Every structure is written in structure tokens, then in C-alpha cells.
Predict the 3D structure of the following.
Amino acid sequence: MTDIVTPNHAADFLLAESREQGEVLTNLKLQKLLYYAQAWYLALEDRALFSEDFQAWAHGPVLPSQYHRFKEFAWRPLTVDVTQPTIANEAVKQHLQAIIEEFGTETAVALERMTHREAPWIEARNGLPNGAASDARISPDSMKKYYRSLID
């Protein structure tokens, strides 16, 4: 599968666009925005934005490459200097902007709680207790099926 955007480009776009709108992102919040961007793209467009899979970590879905890219910030705001990448595909750009509009004003904790109530993360954790470590893969098919069911 070919990435429509890379995880780095998606993260940089979400960071830069959020800042432009006055929102500060932490790694936790960025993870959830990336997750919802991927999940809703799967549901609406029947394909993934990028090929890297999310994992069902204790604090919700995580895209490992982006977590490690920003882990030095821990729980603090991501103050890294990023340039907003050019997203050539206008529909993808609009999709990412819609994710920020819909979820960007929520707190990181609120977004974490949302993902903890949704089937893809719950299914991937397969009964693990809250707070237990996991690197279980969240199935893109599970994401597509669950979020599409919210539309139908």
C-alpha cells in the first residue's frame, strides 16, 4: 500500500494547523488526532492515509513512529519547530482540517477517554486491564468497520 501522506507529514500538518488555530498539542493529543485522521479516512474513503499501524497502548491508540519522534516532550506541549507541509491532495488537506475542527478543541484526556470507549482499541487490547502495557496492533479493518458504522 502506498501512503497518501507520510505519518511525519500528517503529524506536521496537524501540529502546524493546530498552532495556527491557537491549540497546543502534546504527544498524547497528537496521537489521538492522528488516530482519528486515519480512522475516519478509512471509514469515509475506504483506504488508509498511511500504512503504519496504530498500537493499543495503555493511554489509547499510538502511532509508534510519531510517539518516538516526540517522546522527549513527555506530557509537555510539543514546541518543536515544524513547517506545515504542502498536502498536494486537496481532499486529504480538507480531511485533516476537519479532524482538527472536530477533535482539536478536546483535551488530550477527553480524546483518550473517547478512544477507550471505542471498539477498535478495546478489541485490540483483548481484555487487558486498564493501564496494562500493550503493543497490540489495532486492525485497520476494525477501525474502518467501527467508524463506518457511526455513519450508516
About this structure: The first strand starts at residue 55 and ends at 57. The mean pLDDT is 96. Residues 7-151 form one domain.
